[in-house]
From TrEMBL:
Keyword RNA-binding: no
GO molecular function: oxidoreductase activity, acting on the CH-OH group of donors, NAD or NADP as acceptor
Protein known as: Short-chain dehydrogenase/oxidoreductase
Pfam family, one: adh_short
InterPro entries: NAD(P)-bd_dom_sf, Sc_DH/Rdtase_CS, SDR_fam
Family from the record: Belongs to the short-chain dehydrogenases/reductases (SDR) family.
Keywords on record: Oxidoreductase
Organism in which the protein naturally occurs: Cavenderia fasciculata (Slime mold)
Length: 244
């Protein structure tokens, strides 16, 4: 039966740059059909991956996000893996930061991850299978100056994911968190404060000037997914060796 030869649907949020692009390329090369979710549609389409639906969706819009997942499932079958990767990082001191930036980080990094889980979990539980990998950060495990709101959102990703993991584990559904350290993506470009950006770049000099290649984060997600469904690597921290 040719249908059994086709690998299962993988949904990747934030697939227009950084980790999301590497995740899309890696899971596509392994034969999975994909749903790619982000706002910059043309960047996802330019990847030109087979069996891939690209959708211009903001993860904070629950209805649009759910509709995109249901449409992809109608074509490729149930979602077997959701990678909650979309995120924003706007660095600033609390007393200098526009509260709109706190709100955006909370909306995307926390509520976007929760939206994704709500959309796929009931079906995964009913099938007694499925995997969710949420992308947190080393900033979800320790504090960094200028990162108050960002750290808050990423600590939240750990807390929320671990809570949901406990709630669903009896159904054999896996929830895992990957916490990367500094990596070369567009992330630093979200911050508007030039002196904070310069400070971050100076910190990167302590790692040899270049931080981790995004591909290694994608590889670690693939490793988690490829373990047997009965084995859940609950949390993985991956960072440049020289990151303090
Ligand atoms: P990028 O800025 O390169 O990618 C962020 C992605 O998130 C983009 O595809 C962007 O797409 C998407 N995104 C942002 N807001 C939304 C939204 N409202 N709806 C849908 N998609 C959205 O950064 P990274 O690849 O580095 O970031 C990926 C994840 O990794 C984030 O959660 C980040 O916090 C985390 N991380 C990154 C680290 C690093 O050093 N790079 C370290 C630790 C964690 P678009 O703008 O097209 O919507």
């Amino acid at each position: 039966d040719p249908a059994t030869l086709i690998k299962k649907l993988v949904v990747i949020t934030g697939a227009s740059s950084g980790f999301g692009v590497e995740l899309a390329k890696l899971f596509s090369a392994a034969g999975h059909p994909l749903l790619l979710v982000a706002r910059r549609l043309e960047l996802m389409q330019a990847l030109n991956l087979p069996n891939t639906i690209c959708t211009k969706v903001d993860v904070t819009d629950y209805k649009a996000f759910e509709d995109a997942v249901r449409d992809a499932e109608a074509v490729y079958g149930p979602t077997d893996l959701l990678i909650g990767n979309a995120g924003v990082m706007k660095l600033e001191k609390v007393w200098d930061q526009d509260p709109k930036e706190w709100q955006e980080m909370l909306n995307v990094n926390v509520l976007g991850v929760m939206n994704g889980m709500k959309i796929v979990l009931k079906d995964m539980m009913a099938r007694n299978s499925g995997t969710i990998i949420n992308i947190s950060s080393v900033a979800g495990r320790k504090a960094f100056g200028n990162h108050a709101a960002y750290c808050g959102t990423k600590f939240g990703v750990h807390a929320i994911s671990e809570t949901v993991r406990e709630e669903v584990c009896a159904t054999n559904v896996r929830v895992s968190v990957v916490a990367p350290g500094a990596a070369e993506t567009e992330l630093l470009g979200h911050t508007s404060n030039d002196s904070i950006i310069e400070g971050y770049k100076a910190w990167k000099q302590t790692m040899g000037g270049k931080s981790m290649d995004a591909v290694h984060v994608a590889t670690s997600c693939k490793f988690i997914y490829d373990l047997p469904q009965e084995v859940n690597l609950r949390e993985l921290v991956i960072a440049p060796t020289k990151q303090n």
